[in-house]
Amino acid sequence: NAGVMQNPRHLVRRRGQEARLRCSPMKGHSHVYWYRQLPEEGLKFMVYLQKENIIDESGMPKERFSAEFPKEGPSILRIQQVVRGDSAAYFCASTGTSGGTYNEQFFGPGTRLTVL
Amino acid sequence: GENVEQHPSTLSVQEGDSAVIKCTYSDSASNYFPWYKQELGKRPQLIIDIRSNVGEKKDQRIAVTLNKTAKHFSLHITETQPEDSAVYFCAVKNAGGTSYGKLTFGQGTILTVHP
């Protein structure tokens, strides 16, 4: 059973470009979370999605950031007009719908975004 | 919103010693408390978790204790080994009555185990 997949693993963008990060949850999982980790800091929640729905986007900046989890295909975190402060590791995690009421979040390997 | 404080930020121990990391949280409704280990450049991996209806949980050399009244929980690693060197994060989930919800993470503890 493949784990959570993220691509690309490394992404370099110039200021003003768009960054598109992809996350494929574990097989059978329908809940996806995105977190951002700045260098030498903890993980900060950005957005929680289920298939075709954004459940909680309280941690996502209102400007330039958007996320989706379509019926088919991976979840995508999109950052428009990137700035140097967007440089970070972006992790997604997924949970399933079985196994009790407190479901472990399984993390992907992350995408390390560098903005030049 | 939830606020999680983690201490210490760095911890250095000799191989074989014990290591203790503590976290406090602010929302008394929080109900799930996982601990993650993150090696350099790698993904966070769950090492142990505890639910709000349990006071203590142990898995081999790792244990977690929870004090709901005081709103703090701790990670205990006994007989530390150099392979335990990593960054450890506590996290808290307040699912608000549902099974799902975001994790709020502590700031992390850099654990170094010297041979």
Describe this protein's structure.
The complex is a heterodimer of chains A (116) and B (115). Chain A contains no helices and eleven strands. In chain A, strands 2, 4, 5, 6, 9, 10 and 11 form a seven-stranded mixed β-sheet that branches. In chain A, strands 1-3-8-7 form a four-stranded antiparallel β-sheet, with no helix packed on it. Chain A has strands at 5-7, 10-13, 19-24, 31-37, 43-50, 53-56, 65-68, 75-79, 88-95, 106-107, 111-115. Chain A is mostly beta strands. The mean pLDDT of chain A is 92. In chain A, a hairpin with a 2-residue loop joins β5 (43-50) and β6 (53-56). Chain B has 115 residues and is mainly beta. Chain B is 0% helix and 55% strand. In chain B, a hairpin with a 4-residue loop joins β7 and β8. Chain B is globular, with a radius of gyration of 14 Å. Classes of the chains: A mainly beta (116), B mainly beta (115). The interface between A and B is medium-sized, with 27 and 26 residues.
Write the layout of secondary structure elements.
The complex is a heterodimer of chains A (116) and B (115).
Chain A: E1 5-7, E2 10-13, E3 19-24, E4 31-37, E5 43-50, E6 53-56, E7 65-68, E8 75-79, E9 88-95, E10 106-107, E11 111-115
Parallel strand pairs in A: 2-11
Antiparallel strand pairs in A: 1-3, 3-8, 4-5, 4-9, 5-6, 7-8, 9-10, 9-11
Chain B: E1 4-7, E2 10-14, E3 19-25, E4 32-38, E5 45-51, E6 56-59, E7 62-67, E8 72-77, E9 86-93, E10 103-105, E11 109-114
Parallel strand pairs in B: 2-11
Antiparallel strand pairs in B: 1-3, 3-8, 4-5, 4-9, 6-7, 7-8, 9-10, 9-11
Taking all Cα atoms into account, the compactness measure Rg of chain A is 14 Å
Average pLDDT across residues of chain B? 92
> Terminal Cα separation of chain B, in Å?
41 Å
Helix/strand/pairing category of chain A: mainly beta
- Report helical residue fraction of chain A: under 10%
> What percent of residues of chain B are in strands?
over 45%
Which protein chains make the most extensive interface, counting residues with beta carbons within 8 Å of the other chain's beta carbons?
Answer: A-B, 27 and 26 residues
Principal-axis shape of chain A:
globular
Mean pLDDT of chain A: 92
- Structural classification of chain B: mainly beta
